[in-house]
Amino acid sequence: MFYHLKTVGFAVLIFVFLFSGFIQANGEEIKQEDQTIEQEQVDNYEVGMEILFQGPIRPARIYYNYGLGYLNLQKIENLNERIPEDFPSLSNGMLVRRWNSIVGFGDGWRAGWVKTHGSQNQSKGTGEEFRQITYDLEMGGVLIEKTVYIDPLVDLALGAAGGRGTHQVKLLFTQPQTGEMDNPWQDPVSSNLSQPFYFFQPQINARFRLMGPFIGHIQGGYSFTLGRNRWVIEREEISDERFRADGFHFSAGLGVRF
After folding, report:
1. For residue 60, is pLDDT > 60?
2. Which residue from 198, 190, 254 is spatially nearest to 224, judged by alpha carbons?
3. Nearest to residue 222, comparing CAs of 199, 243, 203?
4. SS3 content of the chain, % helix, strand, coil (to 5)
5. pLDDT of 80-131, one tens digit each?
6. CA 11/CA 6 separation, integer angstroms
7. Which residues contact 150 (CB under 8 A, 6 or more apart)?
8. Half-sphere exposure of residue 196, counting CA atoms within 13 Å on the CB side?
9. 20 vs 193, more confident
10. Any bridge partners for residue 200, and if so which?
């Protein structure tokens, strides 16, 4: 009797051991299957995001940047020849402020607005010999570009801008006058000449991601201008040889990308 109970107990222990082993093995298999399913979901999500953001079609983006640049005026001597000899000459290079906003596909065509403004002045002499000349340039128009290379950090695009501009020359000097009780004094006198024109600028734009939505922007190109050979002074047109604001330009600035 005792021997029979011992045999039954031993058989029960073996059954419990085998059953627990089966449960543990089955649990490990289910856990591995769950991990495999989770990993497949992560892989599918990453592949989907890669297709969405690095495929041939990218989400629309908005860029805005502001920077400083250099403009070289190739034909400045034509204008200097029209300035009286007692005035200083203008420089053929000057600093400009340049900003643009643009919207389009991350990898594709984009369009926006660009504006450039620059000014320089030269002066000499004092008192009655004081002479100053100021040159102002302003251009604004539409910018269209096409992406030629893009990755998560670099964005290169070729494009062109076109629109309307105006440049103005201001001559400032002083001349002796006679006031009350014949006391001499000096009154500043100025002449302002302006001329509108149209421009076309082939250019290349390079944008570099700095941090988050912030980007660095480098842009370079050449300006071609077209217009009538007319200057306007005190709202009256005068005939003169046209000065063209042609020349290469380069700018660098900071911006944001959405």
Report:
1. yes
2. 198
3. 203
4. 25, 55, 20
5. 888 888 899 999 999 999 999 999 987 889 999 999 999 999 999 887 788 9
6. 9
7. 58, 106, 107, 156
8. 5
9. 193
10. 162, 224
Which helix (H) or strand (E) covers residue 189, if one does? strand 184-211
Query: What is the pairing mode between strands 214-226 and 230-233?
Result: unpaired
Give the helix ranges, DSSP H, for 55-99: 76-80
Candidates 44, 136, 144, 151; CA nearest to 94 is 136
User: Mean pLDDT for the chain?
Assistant: 79
Average pLDDT, integer, range 18-34: 53
Q: Please, which residues have CB within 8 angstroms of residue 130's CB and are 6 or more apart in sequence?
A: 123, 124, 172, 173, 174
Phi, psi of 183 (to 5 degrees): -85, 120
User: What's residue 50's pLDDT?
Assistant: 44
pTM: 0.71
Q: pLDDT tens for residues 178-212?
A: 555 555 556 677 888 888 999 999 999 999 999 98
Single-letter amino acid, residue 121? N
Is there a contact between 226 and 176 (Cβ–Cβ < 8 Å)?
Answer: no
Q: Which two tokens stand for residue 142?
A: 């539409």
Contact 103, 83 (CB under 8 A): no
Cβ–Cβ under 8 Å, residues 117 and 176: no
Please state which of the ranges 45-49, 60-64, 232-236, 242-246 shows the lowest mean pLDDT.
Answer: 45-49
